[in-house]
From TrEMBL:
Transmembrane segments: none annotated. The keyword Membrane does not apply. It is an enzyme of class 3 (hydrolase). Residues 12-180 form the Glycosyl hydrolases family 2 sugar binding domain. InterPro entries: Beta-gal/glucu_dom_sf, Galactose-bd-like_sf, GH, Glyco_hydro_2, Glyco_hydro_2_AS, Glyco_hydro_2_cat, Glyco_hydro_2_CS, Glyco_hydro_2_N. Belongs to the glycosyl hydrolase 2 family. This is Beta-glucuronidase. GO terms for molecular function: beta-glucuronidase activity; carbohydrate binding. Residues 182-272 form the Glycoside hydrolase family 2 immunoglobulin-like beta-sandwich domain. Its EC number is 3.2.1.31. It comes from Salmonella enterica subsp. diarizonae serovar 48:i:z. Residues 274-592 form the Glycoside hydrolase family 2 catalytic domain. Keywords: Glycosidase, Hydrolase. Pfam families: Glyco_hydro_2, Glyco_hydro_2_C, Glyco_hydro_2_N.
């Protein structure tokens, strides 16, 4: 799915700002057809943004069920004879949309865009009413999963099995955009590079309802290659490569024409290659070592709402600390984030929202019953698998052309020990490869699914591990934790001979808590713990990356394990550095960029 852009043939009208908002605790909005009238007892709410924290109202913060948004907007006079599209970048977790009295679209899945052609409902110069019913309920058949129950008063309660707060609402931009009636619908670009880097091949495939021409332009807008047709190849001599730390981008200008009508779509393209060879992860035929974080889209007041200020500041902190990569844990991030990564040479592991496929983590089952088996008719079943496949399809359709995205992660921490796990994941792994044969794939492994008990990691190209030795187990005993960690990493190396990335490792740390004994929860313990892990990484040859959990403290559901949220951040939730930030900065900025330290090097 192409992201809307403004060109000579296309215009955008952003609908971000204040909308009308109300909850629907009595479930009467659909029956009373609230889309036909102004919302009852509404209040103003900011879009984009989670609704949970915008009001000083506990009922709204923990609300489960339908909420409603509404906005009146005037169509620009100059949009006559244009195709007019209404687009939502993300509505969490389900949204149904009406324009005036007409239902125009609905979408399940909280982190990918959806849109509809509303040309027949939107006359130039006239006003339209946009109404959205948003629902945050999760089930075993949604991605991510959850269970809704009712308490003794009949009030809904949402149980969920992921360890971050279930923020909901219109989380990203809403817009109207235009195209001509002849228009570019979709573009797929792949690149290959000669072993000596002297030349490159760019392959394109375009969906459009007109004759297609493509022009590849460099950063100075000079045409370096061109072609015609819905698909083809361009040869580029002496290409300037997109690479970690240097996000050089070409522009592939795609032109569709028919009977005098023309649409131009400029797609930014990075020329680079990605491959796995033995125990190495290669970018542009060169071994790459990941440094960075698992992150969350999470901030005070905004919740998961996209914010440009936060994006700029977070990336400034990542640059300061020496990070070259991150994982979009545990859902697709805003497209603006990937654009930034493209421009700045940041490497991204792109993940679906499939998190919480687990009965053993002790998360979310206080007010609901566990299914008898995880992979079963009452748990993760065929309907779940179809929803999961749809999530993978939508992720790849949206992000396939981003050079920063070097690997797809189809799930985070599923329990891969039980019967049924391989039957569930094998078709999804195969489908991901068929959708995009150009990128490696992974599924992030949970701590207790080790070499002996895991049943699916061999289906994937890269071993991604989340490990917390010295925190959840071997608590406070770094010497014992170091031995256990190294033993397990060597076992994975010996079994699969594939690259290993530690996609999560971290400890909860209360800023300002200090201890001469480096006790747990103190800033000193976080520093010593990270240094221990790094010693092990440097000794195990198959380890090709380290992504600390987490970039910043983040909100979770309430519980005795979480003191005001998850405190594993290297930065606080308001982005103040803990002592460990300086440990990481010294290690990562002391490395040759993108290269692993050799054993014995100081770090």
């Amino acid at each position: 799915m192409l992201r809307p852009v403004e060109t000579q043939s296309r215009e955008i009208k952003k609908l971000d700002g204040l909308w009308s908002f109300c909850t629907d605790a009595d479930d009467c909005g659909i029956a009373q057809q609230w889309w036909r009238q102004p919302l009852p007892q509404s209040r103003a709410i900011a879009v984009p943004g989670s609704y949970n924290d915008q009001f000083a109202d506990a009922e709204i913060r923990n609300y489960v069920g339908n909420v409603w948004y509404q906005l009146n907007v005037r169509i620009p006079k100059g949009w006559e004879h244009q195709r007019i599209v209404l687009r939502f970048d993300a509505v969490t977790h389900y949204g149904k949309v009406w324009v005036n009295d007409h239902a125009v679209m609905e979408h399940q899945g909280g982190y990918t865009p959806f849109e509809a052609d509303i040309s027949h409902l939107a006359a130039a110069g006239e006003s339209i009413r946009i109404t959205v019913c948003v629902n945050n309920e999760l089930s075993w058949q949604t991605i991510p999963p959850g269970v809704v129950t009712r308490d003794e008063t009949g009030k809904r309660q949402q149980s969920y099995f992921h360890d971050f707060f279930n923020y909901a609402g219109i989380h990203r931009s809403v817009m109207l955009y235009t195209t001509p009636k002849t228009f570019v619908q979709d573009i797929t670009v792949t690149t290959e590079i000669a072993n000596d880097l002297s030349r490159a091949t760019l392959s394109w495939r375009v969906e459009a309802n007109g004759e297609v021409r493509v022009e590849l332009r460099d950063a100075g807008q000079h045409i370096v290659a061109y072609g015609e047709g819905a698909k083809g190849e361009l040869q580029i001599a002496a290409p300037r490569l997109w690479q970690p730390g240097e996000g050089y981008l070409y522009e592939l200008r795609v032109i569709a024409q028919h009977q005098g009508e023309r649409d131009d779509y400029p797609l930014r393209v990075g020329i680079r290659s990605v491959a796995v060879k033995g125990e190495q992860f290669l970018i542009n035929h060169k071994p790459f070592y990941f440094t960075g974080f698992g992150r969350h889209e999470d901030a005070d007041l905004r919740g998961k709402g996209f914010d440009n200020v936060l994006m700029v500041h977070d990336h400034a902190l990542m640059s300061w600390i020496g990070a070259n990569s991150y994982r979009t844990s545990h859902y697709p991030y805003a497209e603006e984030m990937l654009d930034w990564a493209d421009e700045h040479g940041i490497v991204v592991i792109d993940e679906t929202a499939a998190v919480g496929f687990n009965l053993s983590l002790g998360i979310g089952f206080d007010s609901c019953e566990k299914p008898k088996a995880l992979y079963s008719e009452e748990g993760v079943n065929d309907e779940t698998q179809r929803a999961h496949l749809k999530a993978i399809q939508e992720l790849i359709a949206r992000d396939k052309n981003h050079p920063s995205v070097v690997m797809w992660s189809i799930a985070n921490e599923p329990d891969t020990r039980p019967e049924g796990a391989r039957d569930y994941f094998a078709p999804l792994a195969q489908a991901t490869r068929e959708l995009d044969p150009t990128r490696p794939i992974t599924c992030v492994n949970v701590m207790f699914c080790d070499v002996e008990t895991d049943t699916i990691t061999d289906l994937f190209d890269v071993v991604c591990l989340n490990r917390y030795y010295g925190w959840y187990v071997q608590s406070g005993d770094l010497a014992k934790a170091e031995k256990v960690l190294e033993k397990e990493l060597l076992a994975w190396q010996e079994k699969l001979h594939r690259p290993i990335i530690m996609t999560e490792y971290g400890v909860d740390t209360l800023v300002g808590l200090h201890s001469v004994y480096s006790d747990m929860w103190s800033e000193e313990y976080q520093c010593a713990w990270l240094e221990m892990y790094h010693r092990v990484f440097d000794r195990v040859s198959a380890v090709v990356g380290e992504q600390v959990w987490n970039f910043a403290d983040f909100a979770t559901s309430q519980g005795i394990m979480r003191v005001g949220g998850n405190r594993k951040g290297i930065f606080t939730r308001d982005r103040r550095p803990k002592s460990a930030a300086f440990i990481l900065q010294k290690r990562w900025t002391g490395m040759t960029f993108g290269e692993k330290p050799q054993q014995g090097e100081k770090s």
